[in-house]
Design goal:
Shape: globular
CATH class: Mainly Beta
Number of strands: 13
CATH architecture: Clam
Helix content: 10-25%
Largest sheet: 13 strands, antiparallel
CATH superfamily: Lipoprotein localisation LolA/LolB/LppX
Order of helices and strands: HHEEEEEEHHEEEEEEEH
Number of domains: 1
Strand content: 35-45%
Structural class: alpha+beta
Radius of gyration: 28 Å
Distance between the termini: 77 Å
Oligomer: single chain
Number of helices: 5
């Protein structure tokens, strides 16, 4: 498409004179409207090059505003799928270390972003190991020693039971919109799925990962792949969601694979089963008394 710019030597008719001639000729009077675009100002005496540069900025600015808005909406859909008021489930954790697979099973309960409870039921050596999160605090109870220990600070980012998940990863249930600034990058393809590519930068200090790259399936609004970075820019983990299940109105993830980029030759697969959303969970489960029961 070519844009023709009038030669400044040629006189452009005054709209008022044109309007008068239209009336005299019995024609239809046309209202002349000016469409103002943010960031555009009339340039006098700058020449053709300056006008072309100014014109090229306009569509870029408009597209940027639209993409920023759609990025927020995309993450809103992701939050609607993954953030729950309450959830109970049974999980299987397959930990691959140096080509060897270790299998663990646990049950979990979550209520909002404040409460989370996990109890391992197998293998025998892990049975009875429990975790309780209340607000920003977490406790671990080891059945063999019949004692609970508080997990705090940087320890929350350490490996949970030898897996590639941290304690914080398992307990996370908070809206991404509340934690990150979101930028729409473009459209990409992951495993033959058309995806929105987004970049998320922390806007609050209390986050597990300062920066995220995320690919969201256009059809399901599942983040099929995520790259998680430290504030230094170092890649910490890669997360893939390979399966989901329609649970009530949500496309809820049921199979995740996490690769810890700080460890060698390892990954963990998490499979969720017996998922119940918005169910009533007894309040006693989220207490230290329940955690430390014999």
């Amino acid at each position: 498409m070519k844009i023709q710019i009038p030669n400044p030597k040629h006189q452009v008719p005054n709209p008022k004179h044109q309007e008068t001639r239209d009336k005299e000729n019995g024609g239809t009077m046309i209202e002349h409207q000016v469409i103002r675009v943010p960031g555009y100002q009339r340039i006098r005496g700058k020449g053709l090059k300056s006008r072309i540069i100014r014109l090229s900025i306009v569509p870029y600015a408009l597209c940027s505003m639209l993409f920023a808005q759609s990025g927020e909406e995309i993450i809103a859909q992701v939050d609607r799928n993954t953030v729950v008021s309450t959830v109970s489930y049974r999980a299987k954790m397959l930990i691959s270390l140096g080509g060897k697979i270790r299998e663990k099973e646990f049950i979990g309960y979550t209520r909002g972003k404040e409460y989370s409870y996990v109890e391992f039921v197998s293998p025998a050596r892990d049975k009875g190991t429990r975790f309780l999160k209340i607000g920003d605090e977490m406790w671990m109870y080891i059945h063999a020693v019949e004692r609970s220990t508080k997990i705090a600070g940087h320890m929350l980012r350490q490996s949970m039971m030898g897996s590639d998940f941290s304690y914080d990863d398992v307990a996370e249930n908070e809206k991404l919109r509340d934690l990150y600034e979101i930028e729409f990058i473009g459209i990409d393809t992951i495993d033959d799925k058309a995806c929105y590519k987004l970049e998320l930068t922390a806007k609050v200090p209390e986050v597990n990962y300062f920066f995220k790259k995320m690919w969201v399936d256009k059809k399901t609004y599942i983040p099929v792949r995520s790259e998680l970075y430290a504030k230094s820019g170092k890649l910490m983990k890669e997360v893939s969601i390979t399966e989901y299940k329609k649970v009530e109105t949500k496309n809820y993830p049921t199979k995740l694979i996490v690769v810890n980029k700080l460890r060698k030759d390892t990954f963990t697969e998490l499979i969720l089963e017996d998922i119940e959303l918005d169910s009533k969970i007894p309040a006693k489960i989220f207490t230290k008394a329940y955690l430390e029961r014999k």
